[in-house]
Amino acid sequence: MYEKTYKANVLKQSSSPKMKRGFIWKKFLLAIIVLGIFFGIGYMLRHSKFQITNVDVLGTNVLDEQNISESVESQLVGVLLWIFPRTSVLLVNDKKIERNLKKQFSRIETVVAKRTNLHSIEITIKEFEALYLWCTLALPALPAQAGQVGDDCYFMDKQGVVYNQAPVFSGTAYPKVFTGAPLEELPFQGIRLIDLEQVATLQQRLSEINITPVTFRSISPRELQVDFLHNKSTAKLLLDPTVPTETSLEYLFSGIRTEPLSGLFNNESKKLLYIDVRFSNKVVYKFDQSELSAQVGETE
Length: 300
What we know:
This protein is of the alpha+beta class.
């Protein structure tokens, strides 16, 4: 027992300094290796062979390629951990660049950033395509102002995404859609898809009889107002959005082909105020003349 205790204590005391020195050397060597790897990686990341020097932008239509390129370059300014340059091709965060571009440019529908070689990054963009103007104020337009767009209107694509403020211009290239919903941070869903499908159907089917919609206004859950040009003035078509669109159109098509509405509608000297097809099998209309102030036609 004594011999075991003696050997354990003596051997422990005698080997302890050597073990400590060996442990210190191991830590020193490990630190040297870690520092070597760290500076080796730092050298590689900072080497000119691995730096992004070119940004290629593809797919833009309205957006300026130079603005996109400058935005990407601004995201590559600076260093990480006080030593690693953000321009290093090995440190480029593609997903972060894509998120920042979509946040900065609301007109971008999709964007893909990828490194094509050790010096270049390619930005492929798909922009929203405007088909409508989404407007925040459902104010009735004067005949002389039909088709004009103010600062309250924004471009909207075929999916109902509102993405960019519309400039002031004249003409009826883009039908205006008034939903009564408030403006949100761009881009956002400005209208339900089911409602937009109804708008698209009305636009297409009305054009078949030479009626060009100027605005679509959601007045109430049971009233949709379509403004269109008739004999150089603005007339209204009133529909019930809860009724199948084709049913309402059947009432309209039948009405404007039946006298007396047919003759009045095609008379260039007559000013139509509205046509109401919200009633089953009946078309109510009004022209801007006292003797025609409340003429009602019925369809079979």
